[in-house]
């Protein structure tokens, strides 16, 4: 990431600190973009977008979400309610005197991005979803999800959640960060079909110390940042999975109006073997104004093809402005 991007820290509520990068808009006609990363990333995953859009005059705000960096990272999974995270983001906007933003979410960052617009549509100009599309709030039945994806796609898309929910997963990943990153950022995205997604396979990969060639778009610096992210503590990061499997958001979300009326841009990856675009084919039923784009990438779309991503996002922003 550009070293000119200064990391800041703010107490946004009692005892709750957020670490973030904020570059103020240089053009009053251009909005601020709120970037929400996924797992096991950090605000670093948006480096190409922050560099590009800040130079175009847009405001850029990229927080490390709960569990990452110096941001509030409790070990109690019950603190990882999405509604609480959204309130943290609203408090951060207030701290920075920002009103309306365009929210961009990738992977697990899509969840707070969507809930941001559901809880606070008045603060949102639009939403961009990367790889993971919109599925309305619902009670999660893990066994049913596993069986359903196996029947439709031929393998369990989310079998790795079982490992991430286990008591020993955090230590195993910390102790084998290289092997985990090999698989997460494999040069051959098809490995996710055989060695990440199915039940039991990611544990087998990591503990057997399997290795593969990493994706060519990762520099040594990129890898160093990602490795540090894993080894600084995995349990808070895995709490995103644990809390979802425990359905801790359901009481907050069961009566939400889940129709999204703000403009939405969905960017999927045709080589993504877990967040398969077809899995989100029904999202158009719940979004009034949806544009869908598919790029020839795997799961890390913004990092793999930043030029196309930046073009698609900027074109869409100009269209909705």
UniProtKB/TrEMBL annotation:
GO terms for molecular function: epoxide hydrolase activity. Coiled coil: none annotated. InterPro entries: AB_hydrolase_1, AB_hydrolase_fold, Epox_hydrolase-like. Keywords: Hydrolase. Residues 31-306 form the AB hydrolase-1 domain. Transmembrane segments: none annotated. PANTHER family: EPOXIDE HYDROLASE (PTHR43329). Belongs to the AB hydrolase superfamily. Epoxide hydrolase family. This is AB hydrolase-1 domain-containing protein. It comes from Rotaria socialis. The lineage of its organism: Eukaryota, Metazoa, Spiralia, Gnathifera, Rotifera.
């Amino acid at each position: 990431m550009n070293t000119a991007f200064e990391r800041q820290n703010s107490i946004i509520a009692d005892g709750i600190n957020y670490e973030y990068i904020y570059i103020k808009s240089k053009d009053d006609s251009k909005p601020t973009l709120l970037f929400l990363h996924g797992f096991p990333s950090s605000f670093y995953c948006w480096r190409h977008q922050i560099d590009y859009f800040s130079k175009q005059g847009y405001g850029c705000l990229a927080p490390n979400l709960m569990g990452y960096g110096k941001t509030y990272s409790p070990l109690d999974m019950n603190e990882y309610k999405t509604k609480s995270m959204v309130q943290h983001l609203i408090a951060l906007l207030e701290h920075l005197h920002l009103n309306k933003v365009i929210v961009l979410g990738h992977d697990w960052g899509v969840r707070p991005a969507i809930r941001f617009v559901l809880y606070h549509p008045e603060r949102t100009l639009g939403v961009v979803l990367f790889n993971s599309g919109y599925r309305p709030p619902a009670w999660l039945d893990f066994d049913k999800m596993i069986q359903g994806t196996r029947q439709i796609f031929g393998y369990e898309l989310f079998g790795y959640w079982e490992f991430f929910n286990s008591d020993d997963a955090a230590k195993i990943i910390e102790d084998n960060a290289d092997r985990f990153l090999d698989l997460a950022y494999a040069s051959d995205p098809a490995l996710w079909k055989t060695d990440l997604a199915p039940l039991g396979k990611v544990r087998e990969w990591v503990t057997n110390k399997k290795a593969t060639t990493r994706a060519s778009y990762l520099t040594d610096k990129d890898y160093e940042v990602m490795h540090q992210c894993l080894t600084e503590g995995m349990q808070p990061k895995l709490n995103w999975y644990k809390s979802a499997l425990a359905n801790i958001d359901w009481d907050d979300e069961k009566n939400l109006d889940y129709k999204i009326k703000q403009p939405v841009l969905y960017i999927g990856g045709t080589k993504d073997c877990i967040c398969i675009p077809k899995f989100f084919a029904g999202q158009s039923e719940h979004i009034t104004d949806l544009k869908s784009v598919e790029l020839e990438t795997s799961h890390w779309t913004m990092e793999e093809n930043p030029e196309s991503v930046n073009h698609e996002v900027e074109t869409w922003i100009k269209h909705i402005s």
